[in-house]
Design goal:
single chain, 306 residues, alpha/beta, 2 domains, 48% helix, DDE Tnp4 domain-containing protein, Harbinger_derived_prot
Length: 306
């Protein structure tokens, strides 16, 4: 298929998606809906109450914050992989915006010279995308974990070098000196590729997000992307049993061998928001945690990788 015909197919699909989405919103929100109950059943092959239940489950199940049980599972997997307190990898994907309005092109253009929209996600080893947002991530969950006999109380993500030296971001070592630093860089970079793999699978499954976006409206592009992420997570859930994941059976017997635990979620008051912000951006704590992780990876894998 030629590139022009491929663009035509993608454009037709986006037009269809936009029309269907608008029709659904009309059916749900308008006091005089486009499709009354009998027509709704004929149009969407299901009754409206069932459709509403599906929409509610999709929004609450397949694109949501991790629960306490989810966080504990992520912490256990991170600990097995040599990174106690790690709950995922975070990175950005640039989606080319072919029909970006001319007045906005400078705002959305980076080094490539083409306007793009940034999708930032957090992904875990099974390729489940936990957060998908067009902006900065929210505050990190409160946990308690020990690394090299030092206690920390804030989870972190593995990142690449574009992220700042905050206590919630752990990067690799660009020019590792010595066996410990080299081993840490090797394991950090291989573990961080979870999010790169998630991006690759997402684009291979949905050509609409692999090819340039053809719509004019940024919000509608965002809805398309979130729809693809939800469908991606549904596929991951269905196929997760066939994946080779980290063995966390050592933690199933009890809490004694577990060094990473989820803390009870506390409400965030305005008087401690500044303290939370300072704690997240504490570069000294970042350096201390990174040094402890280097030592932990060496103790866990040093003899194995020799």
């Amino acid at each position: 298929m030629s590139s022009s015909s491929s663009d035509g197919v993608d454009e037709a699909f986006e037009d269809f998606f936009e029309e269907e989405f608008d029709n659904i919103l009309d059916s749900l929100l308008d006091e005089n809906p486009t499709y009354p109950p009998d027509m709704f059943r004929r149009r969407f092959r299901m009754n409206k109450p069932l459709f509403l239940r599906i929409v509610e489950r999709l929004s609450t199940e397949y694109l949501r914050r991790p629960t306490a049980e989810d966080l504990q599972r992520l912490l256990d997997i991170g600990e097995v992989r040599g990174f106690p307190g790690m709950i995922g990898s975070i990175d950005c994907m640039h989606w080319e915006w072919k029909n970006c309005p001319t007045a906005w092109r400078g705002q959305y253009t980076r080094g490539s010279g083409k306007p793009t929209i940034v999708l930032e996600v957090v992904a875990s080893k099974d390729l489940w995308i936990w957060h998908a947002f067009f902006g900065l991530p929210g505050r990190t969950p409160k946990v308690k974990f020990k690394v090299n006999n030092h206690t920390y109380r804030m989870a972190y993500y593995l990142t690449d070098g574009i992220y700042p030296n905050w206590s919630t971001f752990i990067q690799s070592i660009p020019l590792p000196q010595g066996p410990k630093a080299e081993l840490f860089a090797k394991h950090q970079e291989s573990t961080r590729k979870d999010v790169e793999r998630a991006f690759g699978v997402l684009q291979s499954r949905f050509a609409i997000v692999k090819n340039p976006g053809l719509l004019w409206d940024k919000e509608k592009l965002g809805k398309i992307m979130r729809t693809c992420v939800i469908l991606h997570n549904m596929i991951v859930e269905n196929e997760r049993g066939g994946y080779t994941l980290s063995d966390t059976s050592q933690f199933e017997s009890g809490e004694s061998s577990r060094s990473s635990k989820v803390k009870r979620r506390e409400s965030l008051h305005s008087n401690n928001m500044l303290g939370m912000r300072n704690e997240v951006r504490n570069s000294g704590k970042h350096d201390s945690l990174k040094a402890d992780l280097v030592e932990n990876v060496w103790q866990k894998f040093g003899n194995i990788d020799e």
